[in-house]
Amino acid sequence: MSRRYRDVMRDLVEGVAAGAYPEGSWLPPESELAVRFGCSRGVIREAIRGLDERGLIEVLHARGQRVRQREYWDLRDPDVLRACVERGPEPATLAQAIDARAAVECAAATRAQEHATDRDFSMLRSRIDDMERAAELAVDRSRDETDPFVLADAWFHHTLALLSDNAVLAKLVEPLQLVIAQVRHARAPERERSVISHHWRILEALSSREPDLAAEAISAYAERLTHWVAVPR
């Protein structure tokens, strides 16, 4: 997958999410898009295929590409989810993603009392340690998914979902992890110490093997996180 193809596809995804290409409308012809993006028609075709695979458009032979209704968009895809969160018309999308993740994590907490080992809890602890180290970095840090705090945050939640001992369940929310962590980092960078405190509480509750305590800690963090990243309308 070439970087140019990904850049064009992401621009088109953002355009669809923002309404530049409204639901039910037709995308411009490939030749026009190639001129607009300064690339070959081959790159445009690959980008269009990416939109089709993500449910944003339907390709109609000899007619073109039509933008599909929002309910068909694959919000499990990080590019689509990120675009809908940042550019989409529905302000509740991010809150819904956070809530969906919390629901899976509460289920994981219930199952963890049977399946989780001390090594599992040690892995979660190491992720929080990574967050601590990242928060202490004096150098300027990026605001994207390469930031060490963002990566550690995402990996903590991916590991927590895996404690469900159900790989399918964990896979359902895997695409959410990096997007949620990145958006929190971009919108509320001053909350890192609070983020770390909440993660310690979640780990302590999990380690107690009391699923109700763990669910309470997970839900409390989801509520605070939703508040931190909310954008006034």
Explain this structure to me?
- This protein has 233 residues and is mostly helical.
- A hairpin with a 3-residue loop joins strand 1 (57-60) and strand 2.
- It has helices at 3-18, 30-37, 41-53, 78-87, 93-115, 118-135, 148-162, 167-187, 192-207, 211-229, and strands at 57-60, 64-67.
- It contains ten helices and two strands; from the N terminus they run αααββααααααα.
- A two-stranded antiparallel sheet has the order 1-2.
Distance between the termini: 37 Å
Strand order of the largest sheet: 1-2
Query: What is the approximate shape?
Result: elongated
Largest sheet at a glance? 2 strands, antiparallel
H-E order? HHHEEHHHHHHH
Give structural attributes.
233 residues, two-stranded antiparallel sheet, mainly alpha, Arc Repressor Mutant, subunit A, 10 helices
Quick recap of the structure?
With 233 residues, the chain is mainly α. The protein is built from ten helices and two strands; from the N terminus they run αααββααααααα. It folds into two domains: 76 residues, Arc Repressor Mutant, subunit A (Orthogonal Bundle); 139 residues, Four Helix Bundle (Hemerythrin (Met), subunit A).
